[in-house]
Amino acid sequence: MNDVEIKRVTKSYGQVTALEDVSLAVEAGTTFGLLGTNGAGKTTLFRLLIGHEAPDAGAVEIAGLPAERGVEVRRRVGYLPEHAGFPPSFTGREVLGFHADVRGVPATVRDERIAAALATVGLADAADRSVGGYSNGMNRRLGLATVLLTEPQVLLLDEPTAGLDPMGVDAFNRIVERIAAETPITIVFSSHSHAEVERVCDQVAILDDGRVCAAGDVDDLRRDVGETVTIDLRIGEDDSPSAVADRLRDAPGVTSAEPSDDRGLRVRCARPDTYGVLSMVHDVAAVDGFEVREPSIEDVFREAIDGGVSDASGDQRVGSGPTGGAL
């Protein structure tokens, strides 16, 4: 069963097409990532999902309902926008009390829900402090707590870690991972960070200029990039990474070889040729260390933006046609 169905959706603002013939489906219980640059269409897609706007063409269903049934949808869907502010004089508990009231949480379970939400996001000890004294990360986690009060079927997180420091990002993502592991909730997670989506999400869609150019299971998409690995090497002080790169560029299986800094060398090659490449480097230079990395979502993103990669089925190149891939 799918908790999200986006069927051939187009949305324009005047002469600007924000989404063009987009089709996606998100299976219930999945943590699904949306990747794309600014202006790719991610926020427009979220606004359509929550019913804040209607598509010019196509249909959007979420949590078993047409998205245009906004009030009913918002009873089943929790939406955390990128920027969510709270009155600085309120305590965390008061913020949640207000949101519980607005969202119609029954009085009989309100205190219990507030306590559970505070515990889930790690703010139980700060519940009675004014939110004006909260850090950015704490405010973002408080925002997440507000949308958990209704125990939503689908959780929409629009750039939830934008602007946070690495510790704040890690704390937020650990909470999302725990929610996904312990509840049957469906999560749609928008981000600029490839590493973040790779860490948190089961599946991903990559948007570029309002179109889906790749979509599918994270592991399948990484494999779909091809049998290419990246080798990061540290070259000895008496040798030149540039000179080694020049020797490698025409070697069998090598697709690129470039210095990464004054001692570093980055080589991309076919997986079966990894040993041969390492042996060749060893023959011409001293190697202080190396790391072999499998394809990442960042590699998928670059490949997709440059020209499209296959969808999860492997049957088509979803960047080449008018419609996106269905998950």
Automatic annotation (TrEMBL):
The cross-references to InterPro entries, in alphabetical order and at most eight, read: AAA+_ATPase, ABC_transporter-like_ATP-bd, DrrA1/2-like_C, P-loop_NTPase
Keywords from the UniProt entry: ATP-binding, Nucleotide-binding, Transport
Listed SMART domains: AAA (SM00382)
Any single GO molecular-function term of the entry would be: ATP binding
Question: Does the record's keyword annotation contain Iron-sulfur?
Answer: no
Give all residue intervals belonging to the ABC transporter domain. 4-234
Q: State a single Pfam family of this protein.
A: ABC_tran
Region: Disordered; residue ranges are 242-263, 308-327
For this chain, the family text in UniProt reads: Belongs to the ABC transporter superfamily.
This one is known as: ATP-binding cassette domain-containing protein
Q: Which organism is it from?
A: Halorientalis brevis
